[in-house]
Amino acid sequence: MLIVTDDDINKRLDKYLVEKTEYTRSKIQKMIENKNILVNDREVKTSYLLKKQDVITIEELNEEIDITPENIPLDIYYEDDDLIVVNKPSGMVVHPAPGNYSSTLVNALLYHTNELSKVNTNIRPGIVHRIDADTSGLLLVAKNDKAHNTLAKAIQNKEVVREYIALVHGIIKEDTATIDAPIGRDSKNRKKMCVTAENSKEAVTHIRVLERYKKATLIRCKLETGRTHQIRVHLSYIGHPIVNDPVYSSKKLIDPQFGQMLHAERLSFVHPTTQQHMEFTSPLPDKFIEILEIYKDK
């Protein structure tokens, strides 16, 4: 949902959405035509001129795209009739998107099983939550719609524990801290997110220092909310961007091929059917440890 502010009054709806979302203008126009985009719960034309406090709601356009199952090895930590817990490597995109329809986690999952939830669009079967392509670690995958809806509601109610390990630039002096800062789309670069008061959503990240080095700090991050790029944006916002982050850090990359030093280490939740408490941890990837050792010596 987007709420129009003074800065965007009298802008064309399609132009405004190009600035505020990741969608192309052609897709936005198609979504408006298909009534996937409404203003104040009403159908409008692409040329509609925005008014202050207009409320824009967007429903993902469910496009039928053939996704090819691919025989890509999966590091599965757990699987039953309802769900899969998978350990995603850094560099793997979670689901297909325009311009990138192969070699994703979804392609691999479709080869592994015919049973994936259909709650999301057909390009995101089974995907309950996501992590960035260059973030490694644990993900929940639903194998049926009932499990998907139960797990999604648990995440919304903050009942699923997701903890990450990150290496950040600089020395964080506090042993623990909470970053409570709303996140929205960056108005200057629609591919980025930022801390902003406009068109933003609540975002809360708890951090705890694990180890301090001369020029960096190893921390544990616990998500209370799950906004796009949340940890990366929050840590950059407090002046401690993640090491090797090509988007939210201006520091020189130590390894351009690896991606940010962020790993989804721990996942804890209640099983949607058995009601059993489940907890999984994933060790740091070898490359993460290799870069970590460099900073230990600095």
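[next item in queue]
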Amino acid sequence: MDELTFLDLAILKKIDAESSVEKFGSIINTSFFETANLLGTIKIKGYINIESSVGGISRVMLTDAGSSILQVAEQKSKEPMEPLDYAILHALASGAKDPESIQKSLNVRNADLAYHLNKLIVQGFMDYEIRAAKANFVLTEHGFNITGAVRVQKPPAQPKQPITLADFVEKEAQDKESAGSFPQQAQHSQQPSAPPWAGLPGLDKEGQKEEAQHIAQEAKKDDGRKEKESAKQEEKHKKGHRQPSPEEAKRAELWRRRLSKLEYYVLEYAPYFLLFLVVLGIFLGAIYLSLSKIA
């Protein structure tokens, strides 16, 4: 009985007094050859007998072992829900669709799995369909509700970035600025605050002093660079907005007039100049042809 599978149990439940090999394929949505193969496998297990009768029809009948399996399945289908039943429903809700995938995820015997699958189907938690010699399962609404649906996995938490000494110094500067904007609160704070790098691991007092001096030097360098850049920008601004002298203004006006006159003459006499070039080209070409004939 340990060789029993859910497909065997589902086929045994569909056998009646009129079952035959020739007509059984339409009942389980399977071709004739696959149906004959399935029934032959179940016959080897001893659950059914296949007998040929007049007219070439092969009747299918349950054996005592097959009837005993159906009785056990009926009894187990009336039992209350067990942990294995809930595990099967959760496996089905997680994407398992056939007995093989469920058996692989739960690692239970095929016979136990077959009885519990039949129990869940009878009690309305799931349903199945046989097609092409394979059984596929789906959850019913009752089964979906009892599983609590599939829990959405939260994304892994991002690791916290380590706090550096520069972060502490920046925070201390912000705290000083906020304390300056609220002088009354600053007066009430009597306990001096510890230096921002005091709580950092791996730094002794000498290392803390050196680190603080290094940061102060870098801050001074940054301030000096900013002052130089601002001075350069201001000087450029002054040069760009310097008022020209009267002589420079006269020269600029003279050049502007000359350029405007040149532009006028070019636009006014450009067609005549082009015509002159065309006539000159024709004249030179005629002279060249004449000289060529004389030569």
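[queue empty]
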